[in-house]
Amino acid sequence: MDIPSTRILGVRVDRVDLHQTLHIIDEFIAARTTHQIVVVNAAKIVKAIQDRQLKAIIEQADLSGADGMPVVWASKLFGKSIPGRVNGTDLMEALVLKAQQKNYRIFFLGARQEVVKKVVSMYKSFFPALQIAGYHHGYFSKEEERQVAQKIGDSNADILFVAFGTPKKEKFISAYKEIMRVPVIHGVGGSFDVVAGITKRAPLWMQKSGLEWFYRFLQEPRRMWKRYLVTNTLFIFYILLALLHLKKFD
């Protein structure tokens, strides 16, 4: 599928919004082959600059959406505008609704056992017709990875949500996607915690203003200060270097 893209600091981001992404996902599921979806925010772009394996996975992904307004704004500075953001949580929730409508089977992977179990229970109460292919917590060893991947492969899922952090989720999906054999695999980060009510999403005005990261930082400053304050500062610094042609990002 020919999806238009741009590069932000050398990292590929597709020029699609949430509505277009959902249409593409329908085609992915209809094709019945495995597709890895990534969503890219400022922090992930900085990590990809520092981690060549992560950057290569984003490059090879079947779809790479802009998860955050700073990435959308940056695309305008470099001449190839992205039409809208593809927030990971918004995409997950839209896919759950679509799954009920189209009888897609979903597998949930990640978070603590009580959290993922609560997420599945909540979605089943909201969407009684939703088909759950299975679920598994995210606290398993390196030696157990292949066994978990095989469990997912045996579930006959159409959609897999992977709730690990970056770059763990991208690398796990890339390593085991051929074993899992799921048409659409979406790395959702901390979205299970949001659905379960452990963390809260920013008000809509903060999301649209590009301040969702700051709201998240205020909830867990000790854990999130490096991820957001350091990487977001680096993102701005790198953007300035690129605009002034002081550094080339390949």
How would you describe the overall organization of this protein?
The chain is α/β, with parallel strands linked by helices. The protein has a single domain, classed as Rossmann fold. It is 53% helix and 16% strand. It has twelve helices and eight strands. The strands form two sheets. Strands 4-3-8-7-5-6 form a six-stranded parallel β-sheet. The protein has a two-stranded antiparallel sheet with strand order 1-2. Helix 2 crosses helix 12 and helix 7 packs across helix 8. The longest helix has 23 residues. The radius of gyration is 18 Å and the shape is globular. The mean pLDDT is 93.
How many helices in DSSP terms? 12
C-alpha Rg (nearest Å) = 18 Å
Q: How many domains, in number, for the residues?
A: 1
Q: Could you describe the largest sheet, including whether it forms a barrel?
A: 6 strands, parallel
Terminal CA distance reads: 24 Å
Looking across the biggest beta sheet, what order are the strands in?
Answer: 4-3-8-7-5-6
Outline the secondary-structure elements.
Elements: E1 5-8, E2 11-14, H1 18-31, E3 35-40, H2 42-50, H3 52-60, E4 63-66, H4 69-77, H5 88-102, E5 105-110, H6 113-126, E6 131-136, H7 145-153, E7 159-163, H8 168-180, E8 184-187, H9 191-195, H10 204-208, H11 212-219, H12 221-243
Parallel strand pairs: 3-4, 3-8, 5-6, 5-7, 7-8
Antiparallel strand pairs: 1-2
Helix pairs in contact: 2-3, 2-12, 7-8, 11-12
Compact summary:
By secondary structure, the chain is α/β, with parallel strands linked by helices.
